[in-house]
Structure formats: structure tokens, C-alpha cells
Specification:
about 35% helix, metal-binding, iron, Ubiquitin-like (UB roll), repeat, OB fold (Dihydrolipoamide Acetyltransferase, E2P), alpha/beta
């Protein structure tokens, strides 16, 4: 049995985390039909899915419109009834003609009576990915339970990113479905227990989940300090189990798997109602939004349409972000669609986004104090800036979570996170080039070995033929005349 580790390393808690803008707003369905859905073919780490439809085709809600393409790829399904307008290399454009997806009947038999390999395949066919942001195919993660003995499932309900409240509302409003999904995941992985980690700044969610799990001895709720980035898998594992993952090792090798609360709902709906992953809850927030809300939206809905449902903008935003303010990415096109991993859309006002000019490092050490990976950002930054990537790698650049905690507390406003992200991308390019060079060397060596082998084989064959001719000549000469 694991024990809750109180000694959490690093982390920050913003004075104003912005959650109050939407934490009391119930989840709303999409009120108006979007004119178009743009369903991206790449919503997972693997290769883009292969489209199964063509322009002009009619599709039904829940219909598979793109199939998985190799490892770490997932199929895609039509969120709503409609007609395919176009199919490109990047997305399927769909013109919907009904707002609500059909309600599928419950399965006639319990999934708890089925073999886990069958259930994992059904989850794969439902196109479920991790909904915490990484979008890793859930079936691939669950398949690790066939390789490793899983003792504990950690259910991530911490939602530590500022402004985000979609998971909070899911826990308050869909606690029974979350627990149903957890029971199915326990059955699939053969895990002994599940621990739901929820930050203490979500008391209503904690109460709802405690009530939903009160009669299940295998599932318990563990309140956590409100500390960013406690929602990161490595930090959550350390906080709830005391295990510190070694670099390069999977959590499954320690007997632990981590799943997001929204992913548990998706599993429940897929296995109990045969409903693929076509919608998700998205937080639309920031003080530049007229009426911040939590919206249950079809995958592929343009951001602009979601903002319109929130009565538009009250002022011109200084920053437009997909995801949270710490680890999210800038929105370059307000009409781009949401994907399976989109947890939030932020339109930040001037009062929320103070962009200051960077100055020289003060050597205060605050960045090192808040780093959850116990790195030394003040020593890493000059190495990255001078492109000394090998030395930066030795100091742990590859372990950086890109959580942004160091940049948040830096009084000199240094671009720490941006610099480390660039450094990690350069390390990735170096690894690719090194692997490519090694593969080329191996192929050249194998080619040379084949040439030598073929030459030797030809010599041997030639010698064998000569020997055979010589033997025949001798036999002819020895015959009596």
C-alpha cells in the first residue's frame, strides 16, 4: 500500500489562479450548430489517421471517418450528422446538420465479464486518447498492463493549471461515470486499487467523488495541496505513492498507471454505450471573454464559434492561448478547431498578462527552488543560449517538464521556458541526425558485407565449376581407348 508523500518538491501557486471565473459554471451543451467542423487527422503522437470518407459523403454521428495509421495512431469519428465538404492532408471538413449526437443504447452484457484484450481493442476503436493534453492513445497505455504487473491506478483530478475548470466540473457533474470508468480500468489492468488525486481548492469535486466512491473499497480520494505542476504525471506519482521515476523508465514498470478523470468518462461511455470519443468539455475563460463558460463541444469546433457562445469578447485580448497559461500554446488563428486534447481556450486581458522586458539574471535562485524536477535553470540557460547542448543535457535539460514555473517566478523575466523548449527541440534534432547517421553507417556496412559475401560466393562457384571441369577431363583421359 502506498502512502501519500507530503514532501512535494518545487511548484508554485499563483495568487490569482483565475479558476473562479468558471469553477461555478455548469457544463453547457453547444447551443448553436457550428457552420463547419474541422476534424484534424493528427490528434495523437503517431502518423495522421487515414481518411475513409470523400467530399460529398453523408455521415452519421459516431461513424468512423478515419482509421488509425500505425503505432500511436487512433481512429476518428464524426461528432455530428452531416455532409463531408472536403478532405485534405490535415483535416476532414464536415458541415453538420444536427446539434446533439444520438444516444446509443447500453450494452446488453456487462463489460466486466469480458476479457481485457477485447476491451482494450474496443477502447482503441473508440479513438480514446489521454485528455490531459498529451493525447497518447489510451489503448496503448492500457496494453502495458499485459507486460507489467499493475498494482495502482492514479486518477488525475488535480487540474493544477490556472483558469482550467473543465475537470473540476466533470468531477462534480459526472462523478458516477468517472467511477464507472475507473472500475472498468481496474478490471482491464488487474490493478488492486485506484487513488483519485484532487487539489484542495476543489472542495465540491472532492465531496462529489468521495460520495461516489464511498461504497467501493478499492477506490479512494486523496486531497492534494493546490500546487502547480502537481498534475504532471511524475509529480502526481511522487505525491501519491512516494515513487520518484528514474529517467527513461515507464511508470508501468513501477506498477503504476495514470489516467485523467475525463478519460475515465470516455472509457465508461465507450464500453457501456458503444460511444466513440467525439466530444469533450472545454473551459473558455479569461477576462477578455464576456461570459466565461465550460462547454461540451464537438471535436473540430472552431475556437471562434465557442467564443461566440460566450457572448464574444469584452475587450481585445493581449494573449490568446489554447490550453492553460503555463503550458498552453499561442493561438495564431482564431478559427482553428479544438482537438481531443484541448482542455481550454484563454483570452487574457492586459490586467492578466503583464509582459515585461527581460534583464540580466539576478542569481536569486528562485527558479531552482520551484523546479519540480530539481534542476538548476540559472545554470542551464547560458548553456542553451550558447548552444552547449551536450553540457545542458548532462545538467538535465531532457528532464525539463516545460511547466513554466521557473519563468513565472523569475524577477528578471528571462525566457527560461522558451529557451529550454528550443534546447530540447535541438537535442531531439541531434538524436535524429545521430540515429540517421548510425543507420546509414549500418546500411553501408551491411551493403559492403553483402558485396564481399557475393564476391566470395562467385569465387567459390567459379572454383567449383573449374574443379568439376577438371574432374571430367581427368575421367575422360583415364578411360581406355
Amino acid at each position: 500500500m502506498f502512502k501519500f508523500a507530503k514532501n512535494i518538491v518545487g511548484g508554485i501557486h499563483p495568487i490569482d489562479d483565475g479558476k473562479s471565473l468558471t469553477s461555478d459554471k455548469a457544463i453547457e451543451p453547444l447551443a448553436r450548430l457550428p457552420p463547419r467542423l474541422y476534424i484534424k487527422l493528427k490528434q495523437h503522437p503517431g502518423a495522421p489517421a487515414n481518411a475513409l470518407v470523400h467530399a460529398g459523403d453523408r455521415v452519421q454521428a459516431g461513424q468512423c471517418i478515419a482509421q488509425a495509421n500505425g503505432n500511436f495512431s487512433t481512429p476518428l469519428h464524426a461528432p455530428l450528422h452531416g455532409r463531408v465538404v472536403a478532405v485534405t492532408e490535415q483535416y476532414i471538413e464536415l458541415k453538420p446538420d444536427s446539434v446533439q449526437p444520438p444516444i446509443e443504447p447500453a450494452q446488453s452484457h456487462s463489460p466486466l465479464n469480458e476479457d481485457r484484450s477485447i476491451l482494450i481493442e474496443r477502447i482503441a476503436q473508440a479513438g480514446i486518447v489521454g485528455m490531459g493534453g498529451a493525447m497518447f492513445p489510451l489503448a496503448d497505455k492500457l496494453a502495458l498492463s499485459e507486460q507489467y504487473a499493475i498494482d495502482t491506478l492514479l486518477i488525475n483530478g488535480s487540474e493544477c493549471e490556472p483558469y482550467m475548470s473543465c475537470d473540476d466540473r466533470v468531477m462534480q457533474e459526472q462523478s458516477a461515470q468517472i467511477v464507472g470508468g475507473i472500475r472498468l480500468l481496474l478490471h482491464i489492468t488487474h490493478a488492486k486499487q485506484a487513488i483519485i488525486g484532487i487539489e484542495k481548492n476543489k472542495p465540491a469535486a472532492i465531496t462529489a467523488m468521495q460520495s461516489a466512491t464511498s461504497e467501493d473499497s478499492k477506490i479512494r480520494v486523496q486531497p492534494l495541496p493546490a500546487l502547480y505542476p502537481l498534475g504532471s504525471s511524475k509529480q502526481l506519482i511522487r505525491a501519491l505513492t512516494g515513487i520518484q521515476l528514474e529517467q527513461g523508465r515507464r511508470s508501468a514498470s513501477y506498477g503504476v498507471l495514470v489516467h485523467n478523470v475525463a478519460s475515465c468518462v470516455a472509457v465508461f461511455q465507450a464500453l457501456r454505450f458503444a460511444r466513440p470519443m467525439t466530444h469533450r468539455v472545454v473551459t473558455i475563460s479569461g477576462r477578455a471573454i464576456s461570459e466565461p463558460r465550460n462547454i461540451y463541444a464537438p471535436i473540430g469546433t472552431p475556437i471562434s464559434h465557442l467564443i461566440n457562445q460566450c457572448q464574444g469578447l469584452s475587450e481585445s485580448p493581449v494573449q490568446r492561448i489554447m490550453g492553460g497559461p503555463m503550458m498552453g500554446r499561442a493561438i495564431t488563428n482564431i478559427h482553428q478547431p479544438i482537438v481531443k486534447g484541448t482542455c481550454g481556450i484563454l483570452m487574457l486581458s492586459t490586467s492578466e498578462s503583464q509582459v515585461e522586458q527581460p534583464s540580466s539574471c539576478l542569481r536569486c535562485g528562485r527558479c531552482a527552488q520551484v523546479c519540480p524536477m530539481q534542476l538548476q535553470p540559472l545554470h542551464l540557460l547560458p548553456l542553451v543560449q550558447h548552444e552547449q547542448f551536450d553540457q545542458a543535457k548532462q545538467l538535465g535539460l531532457g528532464q525539463c517538464l516545460s511547466c513554466g514555473a521557473c519563468a513565472y517566478v523569475c524577477p528578471a523575466s528571462l525566457p527560461l521556458t522558451a529557451s529550454f523548449n528550443w534546447g530540447k527541440s535541438e537535442l531531439k534534432i541531434q538524436r535524429y541526425l545521430t540515429n540517421k547517421s548510425e543507420l546509414t553507417r549500418q546500411r553501408a556496412s551491411a551493403h559492403q558485407q553483402r558485396i564481399v559475401a557475393e564476391t566470395e560466393a562467385k569465387k567459390s562457384a567459379k572454383a567449383a565449376k573449374a574443379s568439376k571441369r577438371q574432374n571430367r577431363r581427368h575421367m575422360t583421359e583415364e578411360q581406355p581407348r
